[in-house]
Amino acid sequence: RLAPNSRPNPHRSPLGTGNYDVNVVMAALGTLGLAAVWWDKRRPLERLCLPHILGFLLNVPSRVTLGTLSLPLSRPHWLGVRQLGDTFYNLDSKLAAPAAIGAEPQLREFLRQALAKGPSELFLVVAREVEEAGTWLTPE
What we know:
Blueprint: H1 22-30, E1 34-38, E2 55-66, E3 69-84, E4 87-90, E5 99-102, H2 104-116, E6 121-127, H3 128-133
Antiparallel strand pairs: 1-6, 2-3, 2-6, 3-4, 4-5
């Protein structure tokens, strides 16, 4: 819907292999009454108000592979993190199965390490009301 008649489509990788840009992610979440809030990595992760956050989307560098051969290149890759019960899970599609991260302290360390890897970005998935009220962030 963002650029249906554009060739090439400016919202996905030139090879058509995914890595849609954040506009696609935001539009998709908007259809569900949700929003993606960009996280400024200069802020401490301790300021995240985890009870108000439904999930996390990370755009991180990922190694390029051809079959079993790993090339000395990387390209951006989206992965999700979601809480089920008391445990947060890495829902990266490149994993064979969801990987348990752990509780809140382990989540914050996981996010810290992911953001330290080259050009990476973090988006918080929240309800539209949470985005508008700004309650995804704890007061200073």
